[in-house]
Design brief:
This protein has two domains: 7-80, lambda repressor-like DNA-binding domains (434 Repressor (Amino-terminal Domain), Orthogonal Bundle); 88-284, 2-Layer Sandwich (Endonuclease, Chain A), CATH 3.30.870. Helix content is 52%, strand content 12%. It contains twelve helices and six strands. It has helices spanning 7-22, 27-34, 38-45, 53-62, 68-80, 96-107, 126-136, 142-159, 174-178, 184-198, 250-266, 270-284; strands spanning 110-115, 167-173, 203-208, 222-226, 235-239, 244-247. Strands 3-2-1-4-5-6 form a six-stranded mixed beta sheet, sandwiched between helices. Strand 5 (235-239) and strand 6 (244-247) form a beta hairpin. Helix 2 crosses helix 3 (38-45) and helix 4 (53-62) packs antiparallel against helix 5. It is elongated. It starts with 6 loop residues before the first helix and ends with a helix.
Length: 285
Amino acid sequence: MAATPTVRRRMLGAELRRIREGLNLKVDDVAARLGWHQSKVSRLENGRHGVKANEVEILLDVYEVSDPETREALAALAREGKRRVWWQPYSDVISKHYASFISFEAEAVSIRNFESSLIPGLLQTADYARAVIRQIESDAKPDEVNALVDVRLARQNATLRREDPLKLWAIIDEAALRRSVGGASVMAKQLHQLVAASREPHVLLQVVPFAAGAHPGVHGPFVILEFPVRGDLDVVYTDGLASSLYLERDDDVATYSQAFDRLRAAALDFGPSRRLITQIAKELD
């Protein structure tokens, strides 16, 4: 599986680009000074290519950056961008796009997620996840399905159960709560787990009821990933049947942030949302 752009690589690239532009240097100028191809400089700046710590040192020499703290911080980003990740053992069963998403998710400090048809992956039970994966990955062998379920649970441990847990704000369409996935028993347990998760201080959960009618989420589910320090690194992720899409432009992120705010306004508040989920769960018990 090809290397995926990690948040650390994106942070490093964004900072190197900021420094270069502050000096009014063009990519061609830097490449010529270093004897590199200009595409290498571009790939480093967009986070699509790894860079060695010593190459960062060389770049910073060209940029005449002498501050030792800045130099060490950027060199550390280069080293950490190549570190082994927890999902590496699953590289034979997860796609490149999925690995990219996990990479971003692992570095995010908060996520805003709207789901129209399914329970958010970070809140799924193992049985629910297995039922979903069997349908989506119809050609997968049983051991591959089990591995993908393990990945989903590992994602939850790496985000919601870490020492400083990720903040998750999930908005779910009522349709996802009423769609029977895996049968009544599986669905009831899933909904009870949703109720339990909604009581966690780092999880906010709302439901858009059928009564809300049409809403900004009718175009489909999306995830807004927010990262520390650099707000311009925030990413919107949308997943389709044949492809996944990352939107990084400020105006795209703003558009989806506004849509999430409108969904939040259309949704039931936290308490009423919890009561609706509880009511549907009881209907299945």
